[in-house]
Amino acid sequence: MAGKIRVSVDQGKCVGTTICVLTVPKVFALDANGQAIVVDPEGDTLDRLRYAEEQCPQSAITIEEPDQG
């Protein structure tokens, strides 16, 4: 059985630019502090998640793919 994609946001790095929320709004939202949080890690394609990860100016987003074994 394949694992799920893991998506995380480093709250120590996130400055709330909203790029991730605008890129994949089904995956990310802003919390009460204006920082990104993950609401549904499977809410979009891996390509779109990778794009959001690359666009984050603080490199606060981490995407971990499941083992293919």
Give a structural overview.
The structure is a single chain. With 69 residues, the protein is α+β, with helices and mostly antiparallel strands. The chain has 2 helices and 4 strands. It has helices spanning 19-23, 46-55, and strands at 6-9, 28-30, 36-38, 61-64. It has a two-stranded antiparallel ribbon. A hairpin with a 5-residue loop joins strand 2 (28-30) and strand 3 (36-38). The longest helix is centred in the last third of the chain and has 10 residues, at 46-55. The model has no long low-confidence stretch (mean pLDDT 93).
Order of adjacent strands in the largest pleated sheet? 1-4
Structural class: alpha+beta
Number of strands: 4
Report how far apart the termini are.
9 Å
- The helicity comes to 10-25%
Q: What is the overall shape? A: globular
Rounded average pLDDT: 93
Radius of gyration: 12 Å
Q: Which runs of at least 5 residues are low in confidence (pLDDT < 50)?
A: none
What's the main sheet like? 2 strands, antiparallel
Element-by-element helix/strand order: EHEEHE
Number of helical regions: 2
Strand content: 15-25%
